[in-house]
Write a structure and sequence with these properties.
Oligomer: single chain
Largest sheet: 5 strands, parallel
Structural class: mainly alpha
Length: 782
């Protein structure tokens, strides 16, 4: 590849990580569009050190929803696509830049969550124009409107509401409307096996996407709704609330600003949603249905048999979903005439409802055309948890290899039985999912228990592996996992970044499995919840952690495992602490310590005591913090070598408390010993925290140069650990010290860098930092 920015995409155009991934995909396409397998063979030798690269790892890089990328892997891909070193340098710089943008919440408001515009969207011109005219009228009204424009797209299942709404959203974006912010959610209003999405959880997701730090997301629905309205006020935002159960589900999700636009789809009438403009989608008109058929199978075939084409679309009730599926079936059978297909569809017209009457024979036709392995996997997928799934989890469910599962899923995708809205993640329309479940009922007793066992094994072992990879210093799981089954599908994860991306993609499925297993498989429920602790803390999903550990606590109590009960109490506390729920923190920890003393578990007794001390310290009662830290140190030292981790953490809290109480010599000694122990253990987190405490003690003693050098050591350790918000806090401590040392320019630079990161981690501290910057600038100019 020559240095020709006209021929190849320019990575400097990327505003954020999704942009960067889209440009990387464009580069792949313009470089001959090699498959992931081909690219994996090229990339492996370019890595340092060279390695065998799974094609699924390459495919993961191109997932638009990824929050992180491995820069070394990205550059190897760019080189494998033929880039020269000048181009490689540009891609490297862009990759570093967009990850910095991701850490600070992205450029102002650009959050792209919309599914792709449907490639085969056809018809609906009158309805499109009606809705676009209504939007234009609302915009013309301007400031006279006191509320956002809300449109409801209603109609029966399979009538194409989601595709229509997504297409409208993309039309609006292409016209320059609502470009500041787009949010999409599937509200799961009509899943017969799962409840509709909880508005509280949806708002938590929206607020996280808007950059609200986890500890600042309120607990109640009303508070979250108010914060959401505040965060989108004045912004040109587009919300697509898909598959709503009823008006009650969406009321709290609506913004208040007239600058916002909301599209809602539902199978029910939302006439009781105040101020909404309803648009009811009926089945296709005959000419629209024929046009869709022709678009998929070819205009020539439809023109050659117009009467048979009319019979086909009539047999499908002119439902867009039905027409899409039968058209895909016909496209894959070039030997069939349209009359052949029409006859097959007309052979079984019976059904209970309008939707099922037309869709059952359509689904039957595609289902019966699947090979036995594919039809078996299709049936089992009806029971897969979560809204979407990967080839690896589908493989586990069916007891196949991932490669075999991918091939079968591609076959189902050709038949429109599954959809791939995002690279590597598959979905089923809820009507297709229900059909799959109905087909599976006959063999449920024989197949489902074994399939469920394989799937649980998949999430147990991959979750455990990802947990230890993302946070290597985690303690071993205290409820031992069973040995993996022979057919367990292990997902390749190269590093902590890949482990975090796996959790991001699988969080909903794991959460659903935990809820399901609390009563039926309580040990597994507890183990699955254990795997989420580190990821939830690193990503500030504090309420998620509280919910899952509350379920884990119920599961542990159900089986009477006191060690697991004690662990869940302490894990829940890790999320309560940044939310300042100190009364609950101390109550949970006191209960945990009592259990530990009754069972003789000295390790978790020491940890619990140290956490109680930390809670008192955060309340600025440093004397109480010191008292509990000393108790924790005594217990942890009784464990000898096995207690060194807790010794390091207890010593740090002792030094921190003593520094605030003025016992500076003892504080320095305790912190130095904590650093030494953490270095021996290669516990990066404990090292960074203890160095920060040691630097504080040196500063209080007036040893500014020593303090500054120690803060810089802490920053270097934070760089290795990778938790940017905690690094930013240490930066603010060093910046304050630099001001005291007269190094104002360096302090300002450090404050500015920290402020950007803290915007999405600790808004209160970010505001304090901004005030400090303002004060310093005013003082310097004055």
């Amino acid at each position: 590849m020559s240095d020709d920015t006209d021929a190849y995409p320019d990575p400097a155009r990327a505003a954020d990580l999704p942009d960067f991934i889209a440009l990387l995909e464009d580069l792949r396409r313009r470089s001959g569009n090699p498959s992931y397998r081909t690219l994996a063979r090229r990339v492996g030798p370019l890595m340092r050190p060279p390695q065998t690269m799974p094609h699924s790892t390459i495919g993961d890089v191109f997932q638009s929803r990824r929050r992180r990328l491995n820069p070394d892997l990205v550059i190897a891909i760019v080189r494998a696509l033929g880039a020269d070193e000048a181009a490689v340098a540009r891609w490297w710089q862009a990759c570093v830049r967009v990850h910095g943008v991701a850490k600070t919440g992205g450029p102002l408001g650009v959050l792209r969550q919309l599914p792709a515009d449907p490639a085969d969207f056809t018809g609906r011109e009158a309805e499109l124009q009606q809705l676009l005219d209504a939007v234009a009228a609302a915009e013309a009204a301007g400031e006279r409107l006191a509320a956002p424009f809300v449109a409801t797209v209603e109609g029966m299942g399979g009538v194409g509401k989601t595709q229509f709404a997504v297409h409208v959203a993309h039309r609006l974006l292409r016209a320059g409307r609502c470009t500041g912010l787009q949010l999409y959610v599937n509200l799961r209003g009509f899943d017969p096996e799962r409840p509709p999405a909880d508005p509280e959880g949806v708002l938590e997701g929206f607020l996280r996407e808007l950059g609200v730090p986890g500890q600042q997301i309120p607990e109640t629905l009303d508070e979250r709704a108010a914060m959401f309205r505040d965060r989108v006020h004045g912004r040109e935002a587009l919300l697509l609330l898909d598959n709503a159960a009823d008006a009650r589900q969406v009321r709290d999700l609506l913004p208040a600003a007239s600058t916002c636009l909301v599209l809602i789809t539902s199978r029910r009438s939302l006439a009781d949603l105040e101020g909404a403009s309803p648009l009811v989608l009926d089945v296709f008109r005959p000419e629209e249905a024929r046009a869709l058929l022709a678009r998929v199978v070819g205009a020539e075939r439809v023109a050659a048999e117009p009467e048979a084409a009319d019979r086909i679309v009539a047999a499908g009730g002119r439902l867009p979903l039905a027409v899409s599926i039968v058209a895909a079936r016909l496209k894959s059978r070039p030997a069939w005439t349209l009359a052949d297909l029409a006859a097959r569809l007309e052979a079984d017209p019976d059904g209970e409802t309008l939707t099922s009457r037309f869709l059952e024979p359509v689904f039957d036709l595609s289902y019966r055309g699947l090979a036995p392995q594919a039809s078996r996997m299709f049936r089992l997928l009806g029971w897969h948890p979560g809204n979407d799934f990967s080839a690896a989890s589908a493989a586990a469910l069916a007891g196949l290899t991932t490669d075999s599962a991918e091939q079968l899923l591609e076959r189902m995708q050709d038949e429109y039985l599954v959809d791939q809205k995002y690279a590597g993640r598959y979905e089923m329309h809820d009507l297709v999912r229900q059909y799959a479940r109905n087909q599976a009922r006959a063999d449920a007793a024989e197949e489902r228990p074994a399939a469920s066992s394989r799937l649980l094994d998949h999430y147990l072992h991959n979750g455990h592996h990802a947990a230890m990879l993302e946070v290597p210093v985690r303690d071993p799981i205290c409820v031992r996992l069973p040995a993996p089954q022979d057919q367990t599908v292990l997902v390749p994860m190269a590093d902590a970044t890949a482990a975090g991306a796996w959790f991001d993609a699988e969080l909903e499925a794991i959460r659903e499995l935990i809820q399901t297993c609390v009563e039926s498989e309580p040990v597994i429920a507890w183990q699955l919840a254990w795997s989420l602790v580190g990821h939830c803390m690193k990503t500030a999903r504090y309420w998620e952690l509280i919910r899952t550990q509350t379920l884990a606590l119920q599961a542990a109590e159900r089986v009477g495992d006191l060690t697991a009960v004690s662990y869940s109490l302490q894990a829940r506390v890790t999320a309560m602490t940044p939310l300042h729920m100190y009364d609950s923190v101390i109550a949970d920890l006191n209960r945990s310590v009592e259990i530990c003393r009754s069972t003789g578990d000295r390790f978790y007794e020491a940890r619990g005591l140290c956490k109680i001390g930390a809670a008192w310290s955060q309340r600025q009662d440093y004397a109480a913090g010191l008292e509990y830290a000393l108790l924790a140190l005594e217990v942890s030292r009784s464990l000898g070598v096995d207690g060194r981790t807790e010794q390091a953490r207890s010593l740090n809290l002792i030094g921190w408390s003593q520094a605030h109480l003025g016992d500076l010599e003892q504080a320095v000694d305790a912190c130095e010993e904590s650093v030494r122990l953490a270095e021996e253990l290669d516990d990066l987190w404990s090292q960074a925290v203890a160095l920060d405490s040691l630097a504080f003690a040196h500063r209080e003693a007036g040893a500014y140069k020593t303090s500054a050098a120690t803060y810089r050591r802490a920053l270097a350790v934070h760089d290795r650990y990778g938790a940017a918000p905690f690094r930013a806090q240490t930066q603010t401590h060093l910046a304050d010290l630099l001001v005291a040392m007269g190094e104002v320019d360096e302090a300002l630079a450090m404050f500015r860098e920290a402020s950007g990161i803290l915007e999405t981690a600790d808004e209160k501290l970010a505001e304090e930092v901004r005030q400090r910057i303002g004060e310093l600038l005013a003082k310097r100019e004055g």
